[in-house]
């Protein structure tokens, strides 16, 4: 019989494959009772045995057993050392950007998620942190944007919503050569398909709301690092902002993660079929999908990921077709967000990228004829028939 002594007695399960790690988490079962489903520790505070002694848990803003199990599980899956679970992806980004000091400069992907754009410009811009939005799939453009004060690269790959692919290993090496850190928003592919820390990145960020949670039922954020200084930074931010993920939501994400590998396989398989079908449809003018062999970033995708994910963006022939799709699909839902079991369509220009300036959007191709689909895990024929019917 295994002797469970305490909550620090977990193994990284390095001998296990990804799917087994996803199912079994860090501690996996609860150390005192043996509960197979890790409990929701709905307690704000923890009783101390005596003066100067603690179970390791004092107050849930700092550390909560359910959140800790999630944080360790995500660190294991991303092959990092330290994980942090926040109340949203944006909260994780807020904690990240406080790494920078006034006068520092950062380089971010040009079509980055609108909320990240807003944090960088409106919030941190006010504190004297400088930024440039660059097509990070173009190494020369990144090199040209470097300044002596550049301290961070913020990479989104594939990018949202234009599906541009950036080379994580090359960009991370470049960041390190100038004393900057490299951050990857890994929301779209998850560690099942892409593990940025193994490619040289320093920080992985997730909107856990999306594939990691996977069921459109929570708002959550994650950060994973290897380095102890970065870990201390995130720990201090989480403790000070008080934006750690709640025990209930931590449990929901742990539950979602148990099927991450199965869901990602199905998202991947369905998206591939939908993208191929879209490409042949007369009302669809352009399909942005990283799994196409003629995608500009295909070679890099092949090198750094083991799958293409479930995201497709597409431009249709007219605004009329946009209206039809958003109004007349039956099963597919017109809703913000991505990465859940249900197929969703969003309209980036007024939704995810509302706060990105119009001229920037037009330049990038995020026009009024541009849509983004998060392909769910339903039967792919139903997805295709629904979309086809709405466009008729
Ligand atoms: C949704 C999203 C975010 C923001 O995460 P929230 O959980 O909504 O706060 C950040 N980056 C990407 C790529 C996203 O899709």
Structural class: alpha/beta
Order the strands across the largest sheet as they lie in space.
1-7-6-5-4-2-3
Q: Biggest sheet, open or closed, and with what strands and sense?
A: 7 strands, mixed
Number of helices: 14
Counted beta strands:
12
Radius of gyration: 21 Å
Low-confidence stretches: none
| Bound molecule kinds, no repeats | pyridoxal-5'-phosphate
Could you characterize what this model shows?
There is one protein chain. This protein has 392 residues and is α/β, with parallel strands linked by helices. It has 14 helices and twelve strands. It has a seven-stranded mixed sheet with strand order 1-7-6-5-4-2-3, with helices on both faces. α2 packs parallel to α9. The radius of gyration is 21 Å and the shape is globular.
